[in-house]
Design brief:
The protein has a domain at about 1-140 and about 165-195 and about 260-275: Rossmann fold (3-Layer(aba) Sandwich). The chain is an alpha/beta fold and about 290 residues long. It has ten helices and eleven strands. The strands form three sheets. A seven-stranded parallel β-sheet has the order 3-2-1-4-5-6-9, sandwiched between helices. A two-stranded parallel ribbon has the order 7-11. It has a two-stranded antiparallel ribbon with strand order 8-10.
């Protein structure tokens, strides 16, 4: 049995589906009851809060390996990671795979801070581990919406190039390493081969879809949204999420984010998916 945390999120669903398709039995752990929709002959749904130690302990019952995915931009993501690592250590699981982020040492970025804090706990756990550090997902680009509206909107400078990676490639790597001891005690940066700006992304979508797509910058909205929500109603989670996004998008706009595709190419034993490949897939399967 392989436990996957935050299993109902985009990354979690991708990993759970890939593991199950390769014949693994999976326990899909998420606080959202909608995770039960994933249940089938290979997938067991487990609804629970990672901040509750008893639920983490229960989730580890009969588990051989863990894929830990922290909920992105969450105020208590590091706490959740620590709880899962502790439960895995107590259960003496055979392999702990952590989903981190490329360049977690960029500590001004709040989501990177959280990932790095969990990496430290993994390194000190005495568990066999693999840390995966995926790049900015191609799936963050809404290709179908851009084609429908003729417009790509992004919250950072449209001329700054960023590296990307296909979530399907990353899920494939998770499935490749999960039960293979040759990947124990490794840290892998997972990056595709494209370094492209929003303007280049819009051009690629236009060429492949055969319809014009323009790109525009739009700053992230405040946590009050339409301003109908008073500031006094904002929670600490609202403020943290907004601050995390503002810092991330400011960094992307000023510096971009870079990575090297060699490790991903080696793990997959094929070239990483290109952004053009991803767009073609979206166009063929809307």
């Amino acid at each position: 049995m392989i436990l996957v945390t935050s299993a109902n999120g985009r990354t979690g669903r991708g990993v759970v589906g890939t593991l199950a398709a390769r014949g693994h039995r999976v326990r899909a752990f998420d606080i959202d009851p909608a995770v039960e929709e994933l249940a089938d002959a290979k997938i067991e749904a487990f609804v629970g809060d990672m901040l509750e130690p008893s639920r983490c302990t229960e989730a580890m019952t009969g588990v051989q390996a863990v894929v830990h995915i922290g909920p992105p931009m969450h105020l208590r993501e590091a706490e959740m990671g620590h709880a899962v690592v502790l439960a895995a250590r107590q259960a003496q699981v055979e392999h702990f795979v952590q989903f981190s982020v490329t360049h977690p040492q960029l500590e001004p970025l709040l989501n990177h801070q959280a990932k790095l804090a969990v990496e430290r706990q993994v390194l000190l756990s005495r568990l066999p581990f693999t840390i995966l550090q995926p790049m900015h997902y191609m799936q963050n680009v809404g290709v179908a919406r851009a084609i429908t509206t003729g417009r790509l909107v992004q919250p950072y400078d449209v001329d700054t190039p960023l590296a990307h990676v296909d979530l399907e490639d990353v899920a494939e790597v998770a499935a490749l390493v999960i039960l293979d001891p040759s990947h124990h005690f490794a840290t892998y940066e997972l990056c595709g081969s494209d370094m492209i700006s929003g303007r280049q992304i819009a051009s690629t979508i236009s060429q492949i879809a055969g319809s014009p797509v323009t790109v525009e910058f739009r700053a992230p909205r405040s946590p009050t949204g339409s301003e109908l929500r008073p500031l006094s109603s904002l929670t600490a989670e609202d403020d943290y999420r907004h601050d995390a996004k503002v810092r991330l998008f400011e960094h992307y706009g000023r510096y971009g984010i870079t990575g090297n595709p060699n490790v991903l190419r080696w793990l997959l034993r094929r070239p990483p998916t290109t952004f053009a490949d991803y767009v073609r897939r979206c166009v063929d399967s809307p």
